[in-house]
Model the fold of this input.
Amino acid sequence: MLKLYNTLSRKKEVFKPLKDKRVGIYTCGPTVYWFAHLGNLRTYLFEDILKRILEFNGYKIKHVMNITDVGHLTSDADTGEDKLEKGARRERKTVWEIAEFYTKAFKKDLKFLNIKEPDIWIKATDTIKEQLDLIKVLEKKGFTYKIEDGVYFDTSKLKNYGRLWGSKKMKVKAGARVEMVKGKKNPTDFALWKLTPRGVKRQMEWDSPWGRGFPGWHTECVVMGAKFLGVPFDIHCGGIDHIQIHHTNEIAQAEAALGKILANYWMHGEFLVLKEGKMAKSKGNIVTVESITKKGLKPLAYRYLALNTHYRSKLTFSWEILIAGQNALDNLYQKFSEITSDAKEIKKESPTKIDDYKNKFLEIINDDLNMPKALALMWQVVKTKKLSPKEKYKLLLQFDEIFGLNLKKVAESEIPQKIMELVKERENYRKSGQWQKADQIRQKIKAVGYWVEDTPEGPKIKKIS
Ligand SMILES: [Zn+2]
Done:
């Protein structure tokens, strides 16, 4: 029984998909004007874990992620500049070049962190027509008004506006926005279509019934979710910073246009924080995957850290903490390598024992993705004397389908310590001319799946496939 925390109901719920064993997931993707930092990537790690857990439970997933390449402004209050246009000016490139470059960089980050790619990638600029269609429907139903700045959604017209807010609702109403677009009726109203100001030539702009301009950021996700997953779909995810405005406004548009909730489950990952506060590009304190590798650390050390904090708790980051994560990961690899080589010799295994641990693991991960507890169980398996190496080997590889720490690669690529010791022993016999003994050891190595070949540079070890 899989339980997930739903921001919509503010409680853990037993997960029930719309269609038997199929799950539709939509996750808000990157705005491709700069490198993703570790705080951004934490959200994608959480979503990756969620997907892996759903798969572990036997669900077949259809996952859609957008690439925001237009319309995301530097301020959430519909003022400020388009992040892409700003990035293009900074780097003296076209917006299209900027978008392509940072999209590639983002996909590379995902690979480094072992995050599985979505089934469908879709760019905001590839759904302009659908976005215009949605705005037309909203206009027809009386939810919009036009001002000099563009076409806005009138939030006072929607009875249930702010479904995700919970008790914070009152606070938002009282809290005064610093900036407000001239002519906006309510502080929470948001831009559906921004008009290009007179005398300005944007690199990205399109014709619309209301004039030349570009879509507001909150419309693309509604259109893409609806296009590929239908409405409602099962799960919508993002960072907690999306609850207040972006996801609230996605829900508002779907409800106004279609009379339905956009998705049944809304899940949000917490922030990564530094001792001095939030990691943000505007604060100039961002850490990227590249900065991790530049320091000689593994990106997967960060994945390990992210696993070690529950996705709904704040993750504190510092280089010392990352190094501790790297040490834990190296330790795991070392132990797993030993288990792998022992497992070849001690083949004892009891299916019931394996199942007991597997069920325990499933129970833990199905409790709203309790990965810190799952990691603790993993270490228990590594250390216990109650399991044989073969049993440990099998369990750890199964656990790693969720953790994604590349244990399979360790088993495949690294020559276990035990084999290395045997090779060394054989070399000593060869040097002292004890050929028969050397040959016996070669047979022993072969029996556990490795082949030694003598070359002028010394012995070469290969795994027999
Ligand atoms: Zn979104």
Observations:
- Residues 28, 221, 246, 250 surround zinc ion (CB under 6 Å).
- Residues 170-178 have pLDDT under 50 and may be disordered.
- The two ends are 39 Å apart (CA to CA).
- The longest helix spans residues 319-345.
